[in-house]
Amino acid sequence: MSIIQVQNLSFSYPSSFDNIFEDVSFQIDTDWKLGFIGRNGRGKTTFFNLLLGKYEYIGKISSSVEFNYFPYPVKDKSKYTYEILEEICPQAEDWEFLREIAYLDVDSEAMYRPFETLSNGEQTKVLLAALFLNEGQFLLIDEPTNHLDTEARKMVSDYLRRKKGFILISHDRQFLDGCVDHILSINRANIDVQSGNYSSWKLNFDRQQDHEEATNERLQKDIGRLKQSSKRSAGWSNQVEASKNGTTNSGSKLDKGFVGHKAAKMMKRSKNLEARQQKAIEEKSKLLKNVEKTESLQLEPLEYKSKELVQLTDVSVMYDGQMVNSPISFNVEPGDRIVLDGKNGSGKSSILKLILGHSIQHTGTVNIGSSLIISYVQQDTSHLKGMLSDFIEEHQIDETLFKSILRKMDFDRIQFEKDISNYSGGQKKKLLIAKSLCEKAHLYIWDEPLNFIDIYSRMQIEELIQTFKPTMVFVEHDHAFQKRIATRTIKM
């Protein structure tokens, strides 16, 4: 066991005037299983890069352990898997590699295949296994779930629960609950470390916000009351001061000493009220700095006149003449929110593309309703680049509405002036979702929409769908999202 100490850390990118981190201090134990959470663009991956020594910064990071990063950059994917694993962990024996990948339900024959022939999920698993075999290293795991199906996420979560010594960036609530014992959270105003899993952290965070809201309300009332008292006190003081040279109602001269004493007493009371008011204002200013407000999003789904939008009958996707999935049949009716669930490579994305009208070899029949308008969120964001204004013009989006949605999804205005290629993975995905929300459609087809998207935005999107009830066919491996949104599950 050792300590990673972060002291007075400040950092900003050379191209930006805004600090990502400003005078941040905290410490973590190298035995912890640490979940790392925060809104998109808050600096989670940046912090990993600082630990890895990639950027210069102000302050101090001290540690006696070496850091390693997942996903490991594989330069030559044509090599056999065992060769790549030996590069990552040269001191490990073959039997140790085989033991670790067996824990993750990867067949031993994968070791003797070219790495590029493994599925994305298999690649994730074997790289994690190799990295954990490096003794004395603290692993920085950056969003491992993006290429994992629901079953694989459970398996990797169970695997990580048996390990120690890592920081894990993930926005999958159930995945985090299954494998971490501490939470490191980048909040609006600070960085906080707490013991427990995501659910216990969220409970504590919400309680703190509720307490601060109640305290804020009380202080607002105190400030209002003190202002009124201060005005009355000042009025009395002025009246007494004005009467120093006056007379009583009976015509006798006032005692100037008494009047002066009374004026001083009033002034002192006024000053005390002012000091109490200032203290209440200062206490109020310390509150609500970490409130994560999510404004409600809106959607305008179109009503489809027919009872049936899409019909699939005995459909199997074919690759190189081979059936990828067992034949499936289902209808899409207004109000349906159908999730396609299955392992990686089972043809889920291909089914979505068939509904979109793509030319993909398949068996069975796909019937699409007449004049059906579809809005599509694709899985891949690697093609996104250029300025936001060009993206808006290319897709003929209502600029005001589009930017309003992005602002509600926690985009700063400064992001509108940046090249999209410099956006984080979550920001790029939000761009595609915001585009879809601008489109009036009968059917919304979303392919893994939550990849890289932060937890608060996930809940914001869940609320949107539950409120406006659009007709949807989607693929998403976040079990909590599936459970709240899907009206029907089609197993692939």
TrEMBL record:
Keywords per UniProt: ATP-binding, Coiled coil, Nucleotide-binding
Region (Disordered): 212-256
Coiled coil stretches, renumbered: 263-290
PANTHER family in alphabetical order: ABC TRANSPORTER ATP-BINDING SUBUNIT, DRUG RESISTANCE ABC TRANSPORTER,ATP-BINDING PROTEIN
Annotated signal peptide: none
Source species: Paenibacillus shunpengii
Protein name listed in UniProt: Lsa family ABC-F type ribosomal protection protein
Compositional bias (Basic and acidic residues): 212-225
Biased composition (Polar residues): 231-252
Domain ABC transporter stretches: 4-213, 310-492
